[in-house]
Design a protein that fits this description.
It contains two helices and four strands; from the N terminus they run βαβββα. The chain is of the alpha+beta class and 70 residues long. It folds into two domains: 39 residues, no CATH class; 30 residues, no CATH class.
Length: 70
């Protein structure tokens, strides 16, 4: 059936349903390789340089990741 699954999650109810289904598939075939990617929105936490480059404040990024982990 599947050899690899990429499970992208953002903590939403739909992501939880996808995780449950992924677990179901893995029970059917323990050889399935699964990678989990946690996604969160940082669009409001970036800074644009004068040359158009995008910068993130590392402290803000660390605080956001700790908030999500809790």
């Amino acid at each position: 059936m599947f050899k690899k699954i990429l499970l992208a999650t953002d903590g939403s109810e739909n992501a939880l349903k996808a995780a449950r289904y992924t677990c179901h598939l893995m029970k059917l075939d323990p050889q399935i390789e699964t990678t989990v990617l946690y996604v969160f929105d940082l669009s409001h936490q970036y800074f644009l340089g004068s040359d158009g480059a995008v910068f993130f404040d590392p402290d803000v990024l660390r605080d956001k990741m700790n908030e999500i982990a809790d």
